[in-house]
Amino acid sequence: MESAGGKGIEDIRNLYLKLNSMFYKYSNEVTGILMSTLARENYLLIGPPGTAKTTLVYVLSKLLNARWFYRQLTKFTDLEEILGPIDVAKLLEGKVERIYVNSIVESDFALLDEIFNASSAILNTLLSLLNERVVYDGDKVIPVKTWTVFGSSNRIPEEEELQALYDRFPLRIFTEYAAPEDTEALLTKGWYLRRETENLSPVATMELIRDTYNELIRHLYVNINDVAKVTSPIIADFVEHVPISNRTRIKVPLYALAYLMIQGFPLSQVNATMLKVAVMKVSRYLVHDKEQLSEYEAFLTAHLPDELLKVSDLVSEAKALLNNNMVNEAAQKIKEAEETLNKLKARWDKSLLSLYISEIEETEYLIQRLRGAIYGSEQ
């Protein structure tokens, strides 16, 4: 067995870094896809066409040397395209059997594109596949080897008959087109991605993924009382703003531990503070729709460490002052924000800094932009 400690955790981290380096401003999507893979959870990517949803799953499968299955679903997609064709030779003998080779049943990863456009026959089949990892094929119950099922769609389903299917994807991400000002960087990264995809080599294995999942489950079995005591207040606060089902709440500690492994922390190093931060970060993937992301952002802000929240407030004040042409006052606020941020970075330990790196980098970026605007105002 390949443990997720030592070399294993290094491989998981390298997998994240490789994926993140290949895609432009896709760190949330990359974190989500790896978290769902380590937690053996279904993952839904929602967004307009051309936002690299399919490519992300394909690249992950290449980096893990995983068997992957892909279908774009329509109302006319036949069940045989998902489960495999009927074995004609067996049919001539009076037996109805399928050939499951190269079907979803035999895959490690499955990507079902435009999943909510599928026929009712396929949708009914998917419900048991997603929840129980079995399919009911005639009078047979067929175990499904698929480790993680990825769905993609350009919409959230409104139809009542699709809500059960939507609920089978508790982890969700909303992809977007790059901003106009990001076009140059997007072009560069896009061609790099195209070149790299053609020459990818595995950086980890599905064996590591399976062993890591089993390690996570064992850890929760042994430590669930302590984990629940730490995580339940954060989860309870979140569901006050964004309702999530009982089934999903139970799995949040699993997602949080998987998230920490992606950040490079073996389970032996996880402490209460790290676990609380991880729960806050994974809550992003539990919202029902894009509108609830503002609720998530408010929730995250409310739980930021006081020092980081102070920096954020100072930056907001500087922006407001600059909008009112109070340049000197804005410059003073920026100076205070920078000093507070530097003190924070000097005092915090490496683990806490790494867990809040995205917020810190975003704050530093805003400070730089405001400094540029102030400098421009003084010219």
Key features of this structure:
alpha/beta, two-stranded antiparallel sheet, RavA_ATPases, globular, P-loop_NTPase, ATPase associated with various cellular activities AAA_5, five-stranded parallel beta sheet, 3 domains, MoxR, 59% helix, Rossmann fold, 379 residues, 7 strands, Methane Monooxygenase Hydroxylase, Chain G, domain 1
Describe this structure as you would to a colleague.
- Helices cover 59% and strands 8% of the residues.
- A hairpin with a 2-residue loop joins strand 4 and strand 5.
- With 379 residues, it is an alpha/beta fold.
- The protein has a five-stranded parallel β-sheet with strand order 2-3-6-1-7, covered by helices on one side.
- The radius of gyration is 23 Å and the shape is globular.
- The protein has three domains: 180 residues, P-loop containing nucleotide triphosphate hydrolases (Rossmann fold, 3-Layer(aba) Sandwich); 97 residues; 73 residues, Methane Monooxygenase Hydroxylase, Chain G, domain 1.
